Write a sequence for this structure.
């Protein structure tokens, strides 16, 4: 039974014309405790060459492919087929192209070798080049000394992206899509711009909540000249385009005594004579105040009622304060009466929409 060959750190694939310089490199690797597989050291007389080479590649932890002045040797073809099969099965299997001192300035590598990081010894078997080779063989996951020179990898963009993280590849793809979309948009014919007027004549009609026109109103607008009321109840305002914001949007308000104001948003376009109806709202207002005794202390739990027909009835809180919601327009005068548990009362007039209504109870 044949005894299996021991495992080695690196298989040295080379042209026999470069035997001397490869042997020198092998000796330096052996001296730095890297166990190499070199054919003249490993193949016994009488052993089948092809079987011995395949066994050496299978039992090595990495392969170094040396390229010299004469390029790849005849046996390096079958060797490359074997370690390419190994690299396909083991994604992290190191394949290290090495340019020997006699290699030409422009090295023509086989396609599948171009994707691997190489070691350049064309300037000599320097300590820096040997350190790079040892790093690729023994410590692929350990950072290299930053003082050592690293030549850029001369590969196409597709090969380089292969070793970037997924998010980088997606980012590059997205940037390419954006550039292509921008170029496509630039080639599209320009869209015709609408013929926007330089001056608008806006007409506004205020309506009550039931939809009936309201005669005595005031209208204000966020842009344009002062609105003018016409005889038919409409309001008209001239709006120069120069006074409008970029989107030509405006706000319009309508007010009338007895109603809460109405508001309408409008975006002006191609029509130079737009019109809009603004519906006023049911009147709503608030009246807030406080009940005190003659000494100035606030009175809690006092009743506050209206004495002139408005339906209001509330009770003061612990701080003597009250708040009344009314369906009345702001500024309406209301007479209020306050009374506590002891029968002390007072009356005063307050105005809706205002704060600070004070009711002072009579008596001690």
């Amino acid at each position: 039974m044949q005894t299996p060959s021991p495992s080695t750190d690196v298989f040295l694939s080379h042209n026999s014309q470069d035997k001397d310089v490869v042997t020198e490199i092998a000796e330096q690797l052996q001296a730095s405790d890297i166990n190499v597989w070199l054919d003249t050291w490993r193949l016994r007389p009488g052993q089948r060459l092809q079987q011995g080479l395949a066994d050496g590649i299978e039992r090595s932890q990495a392969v170094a492919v040396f390229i010299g002045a004469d390029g790849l040797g005849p046996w390096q073809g079958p060797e490359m087929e074997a370690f390419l099969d190994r690299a396909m099965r083991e994604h992290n299997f190191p394949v290290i192209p090495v340019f020997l001192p006699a290699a030409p300035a422009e090295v023509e590598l086989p396609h599948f070798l171009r994707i691997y990081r190489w070691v350049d010894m064309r300037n000599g078997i320097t300590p820096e080049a040997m350190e790079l080779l040892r790093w690729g063989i023994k410590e692929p996951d350990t950072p290299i000394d930053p003082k050592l020179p690293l030549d850029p990898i001369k590969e196409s963009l597709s090969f380089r992206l292969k070793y970037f993280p997924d998010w980088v590849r997606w980012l590059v793809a997205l940037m390419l899509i954006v550039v292509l979309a921008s170029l496509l948009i630039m080639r599209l014919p320009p869209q015709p711009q609408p013929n926007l007027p330089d001056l608008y004549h806006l007409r506004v009609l205020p309506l009550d909540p039931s939809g009936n026109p309201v005669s005595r109103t005031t209208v204000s607008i966020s842009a344009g000249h002062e609105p003018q009321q016409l005889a038919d109840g409409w309001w008209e305002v001239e709006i120069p385009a120069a006074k409008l914001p970029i989107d030509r949007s405006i706000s319009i308000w309508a007010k009338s005594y007895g109603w809460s104001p109405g508001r309408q948003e409008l975006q002006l376009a191609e029509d130079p004579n737009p019109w809009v109806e603004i519906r006023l709202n049911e009147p709503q207002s608030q009246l807030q105040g406080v009940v005190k005794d003659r000494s100035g202390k606030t009175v809690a739990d006092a009743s506050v009622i209206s004495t002139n027909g408005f339906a209001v009835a509330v009770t003061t809180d612990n701080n003597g304060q009250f708040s009344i919601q009314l369906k009345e327009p702001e500024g309406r005068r209301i007479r209020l009466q306050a009374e506590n548990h002891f029968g002390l009362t007072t009356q005063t007039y307050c105005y809706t929409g205002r704060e600070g209504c004070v009711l002072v109870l009579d008596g001690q």
Q: What stands out?
A: The chain has a mean pLDDT of 81. The CA atoms of residues 203 and 315 lie 47 Å apart. The chain is about 20% helix and 25% strand. The chain has four domains: 10-154, 156-189, 199-279, 285-360.
